[in-house]
Design goal:
The chain has 4 helices and 10 strands, in the order H-E-H-E-H-E-E-E-E-E-E-H-E-E. With 187 residues, the protein is α+β, with helices and mostly antiparallel strands. The chain folds into 2 domains: 103 residues, no CATH class; 74 residues, no CATH class. The strands form 2 sheets. Strands 5, 6, 7, 8, 9 and 10 form a 6-stranded antiparallel sheet that branches. Strands 1, 2, 3 and 4 form a 4-stranded antiparallel sheet that branches. The relative contact order is 0.17. The C terminus is likely disordered. It is found in: Mitochondrion. Keywords: Iron, Iron-sulfur, Metal-binding, Mitochondrion, Transit peptide. It comes from Fopius arisanus.
Amino acid sequence: RDVILNLWKKCSGYMVIIEEGTRRGSELINEARDLILNLNSVELKGEVFAPCSHNLTCPRLSNNGDRTPCNFEVGFVPLHLGNEKNDRQTARYSYVVFKKGNISDPTRKWPRLVRPTLLRSKHIICRMCTEDAKLQEVIFTHSKHGRHAYRCAKASDWGDRLPIKLGDQLPTIRKTLKTNGEKYENQ
C-alpha cells in the first residue's frame, strides 16, 4: 500500500503496474487499482487508462463462478547463451495503467478483447470487457454486421480494443455474465 502510494505521488502523468498473469497477480493488480481509484485527494485523483474502459470493479474478480484471472498474453524468443533452440515462448501477465486527472479520450469506451479471438466458419467470436464492467461474448457475421465490422473483428486479437459501440441491435450479444455469476441470454 505504502509503496504504491509513494510511486503514485512521484509520477507526473501515467503509472504502469505489471504482475504475473495468475489469479493472485490479477488480485494484486486490482488491490492497487482500488487503492488509487479510492483516493480522496484532488491532486492524487486518477483514473484507469488501460486495460479497462471503466473505473468499476473488475468483472473477473466480482464473478465467483468465473475463476479466470484478467490477464493477457505476450510471445517472445528467450535469450539463449549457447547452442540452444530459439523456440518462441509465451507468458501471461496482468497489468493496469493509471493516469492522473480525468481521461477525455472518446475511444476509451471501446471494449477490450479479454480472450483470444475465435475464428469459425463464417463467424468470429469475440469475448470482451465493456465500458459498464460486463463480460460479453459477441458473434460477428458478415451478413449481420457488415464487411467492415466483420473484418475488424477477424483482424483483432487478445488485448486489442474494438472500435465498436455495443448496443441492442449491433452487434448481437449471445450471453453476458452478470457480476453475481448468473448467465442470461440476450436475444
